Amino acid sequence: QKEVEQNSGPLSVPEGAIASLNCTYSDRGSQSFFWYRQYSGKSPELIMSIYSNGDKEDGRFTAQLNKASQYVSLLIRDSQPSDSATYLCAVMRSNYQLIWGAGTKLIIKP
Amino acid sequence: DTGVSQNPRHKITKRGQNVTFRCDPISEHNRLYWYRQTLGQGPEFLTYFQNEAQLEKSRLLSDRFSAERPKGSFSTLEIQRTEQGDSAMYLCASSRPRGQGWNEQYFGPGTRLTVT
């Protein structure tokens, strides 16, 4: 079992709809969780960080964390074609090392 | 803030040659990380510095890889006797020492290495 798991996709969502991306992790001691967006050929770009159970909203993005279920999700509202990218979930170990999922490819269809 | 910068952006080398990459972190960031990413995978941790001290090094990092951060500012990653399996994107990230978002890592544009 991988430490951080994501559905590889592709996930296809119509423009204007809500895109829902999911991630599970295995280390119960993890305290910091991150979502990055990566366009093809580019480096990861930080979108959201979340540390406490519940929801955290930033513009069109909402991160959700459930430590009991070891589950992190990212919701993108009013999806735009420019949101088409690979979304990477990262979980921080106690030594500040990020452990990454393989990413979910998101396609927003106009 | 100027972002994290990396040089060169692309490097093509022949198998067996040595290569060196440079990373300049965001100026007030004291932590610096190196990752490697291959197609279709998430980044893979290589090593981590806090100021000039190298605090963590992945077991996956062979003796052919070495990293330095001599004055706690920029860092270099050297790969000796390159192999075709070293072909990847090499990513550098940095994070601030304290305050809001203190452990958020910000990435540079990466150095794409191709070993022929």
Largest beta-sheet details of chain A: 6 strands, mixed
What structural class is derived from the secondary structure elements of chain A? mainly beta
Estimated share of beta-strand residues of chain B: over 45%
Shape of chain A: globular
Oligomer status:
heterodimer
Global Rg of chain B: 14 Å
Number of helices of chain A: 0
| Range of helix content of chain A | under 10%
Low-pLDDT runs of chain B:
none
Q: How would you portray this structure in words?
A:
The complex is a heterodimer of chains A (110) and B (116). With 110 residues, chain A is mainly β. Chain A is 0% helix and 55% strand. In chain A, strands 2, 4, 5, 9, 10 and 11 form a 6-stranded mixed β-sheet that branches. In chain A, strands 1-3-8-7-6 form a 5-stranded antiparallel β-sheet, with no helix packed on it. Chain A is globular, with a radius of gyration of 13 Å. The model of chain A has no long low-confidence stretch (mean pLDDT 95). Chain B has 116 residues and is an all-beta fold. In chain B, 0% of the residues lie in helices and 48% in strands. Chain B has no helices and 11 strands. Chain B has strands at 5-7, 10-13, 19-24, 31-37, 44-50, 53-57, 65-68, 75-79, 88-95, 106-107, 111-115. In chain B, strands 2, 4, 5, 6, 9, 10 and 11 form a 7-stranded mixed β-sheet that branches. In chain B, strand 5 and strand 6 form a beta hairpin. Chain B is globular and about 45 Å long. The mean pLDDT of chain B is 93. Chain A binds chain B through residues 4, 8, 32, 34, 36, 42-46, 49, 88, 90, 92, 95-103, and chain B through 31, 33, 35, 40-45, 48, 55-56, 89, 91, 95, 101, 103-110.
Key attributes of the depicted protein:
heterodimer, A: 110 residues, mainly beta, 6-stranded mixed β-sheet, 5-stranded antiparallel β-sheet, 11 strands, 55% strand, B: 116 residues, 7-stranded mixed β-sheet, 4-stranded antiparallel β-sheet
